[in-house]
Predict the structure.
Amino acid sequence: MVQRQRLRRAAGLEPPGGAAALQLASLAGFHRHFAGVARLAQQHGHFIWEVGFWRHKDAILPPEVVPLRFSPADHGLVAGSGADDAIAPGEAPTLLAPDEDRIIVSRAAVLRERWIPAHWQVVDDNAAAVAAAAGAVAATVVLHYGQIAELETLAGQVHQLRHDGGKALKIVVREDHEILRQRYELLMMTLGASLVIHRNTPFARVQTMIEAIQGQVFSRPILPDYKSALSAVVATAATGYVPPADFISLVRTTLERSSVIRLPHVLLELPLLPEVAHVDALRACQMQDAGDLCTAGSNAVYAFFFACRMENVETACRHVFVRPMSELFGGELRCGDPESILGSLKRLESDIAQRPVQDYSGWLASQPGPSPVAAPAELPPQDAPIPLPATSRARRGRRAQPQAFAIPLKRQR
């Protein structure tokens, strides 16, 4: 209430002598004198009232920023309804914008539901949802994700909505057939998604999650181009062993690209046991996912896992190494942040400069069985079409084949 009284007082400032003594010449001087005392502005998608100072009798109070929201009754601006203000009992929460209760949904995102709320606006597809959201300020847009082939288009749609709609717009991505990998989910959140709803989430839970983000604004910076962020989650086509110089170059380039969305990676420095040859350790390292690389230094093997978190390293190693690591290495050094990874690369670079290491590509290619040697590859140019792999570290391993079995029939009487 106090803030509302101050707001009315600031809006009703009068020059000395009162409104009756007002002259046009003095009005211009009055506005010059008080320019910037108070102004209506927009911050993160909602309106605020910025006051340079408050004058109360003979005292001048410090600057203040009053959040403004829209009344749910008549959509008029009201003061003192920010996120930190308590809502009186029986009072409806205020709105960031008059359209905050509008929800636009792609039909595929709710195709399997028997019932949807009557006020939800269902449109044909994601493109129609983006078009329907033109001019929206604080509405909610629910997009559908079905398979990896749709990822680039979906990334562009999320970025367009956030770039054009501002930070008060709520953007929700709902999984359907496939699960967004962690790095692609991180990509969506970086490009502007407010929420990613995982596959098989009950619809009642979906409604609760959408209601929970009402009143929120997007807090991350809005990227100027979505393709640079999309290329950050796409690995080099190389997989497996590469010579040390190529390994250093590819890992550094990967770190540089993925810094846009802070994508996690892990580099392992594995010192060899005295009795283990380099080629035997490299042969035991059977990498399959694009971007996972290995190489050899003078006395160690280096393994780089693309888009892998520290807590998942042991699982990744169990899938990659066909022999127990204790039979090959005398320990391990795990590097899970860009600084430590770059430090390990510098040590490897210094090591091979002092003691050049043989290129084991020919040895590994001549060995029987699947070759761990990577095909020569570089990261795609920034403006090239972005190839999206269809495999995932989470899906490694062979699916067990169904086995036939007999069910005993009940004896007939």
User: Anything to note?
Assistant: Residues 15 and 30 are 7 Å apart (CA to CA). The longest helix spans residues 338-354.
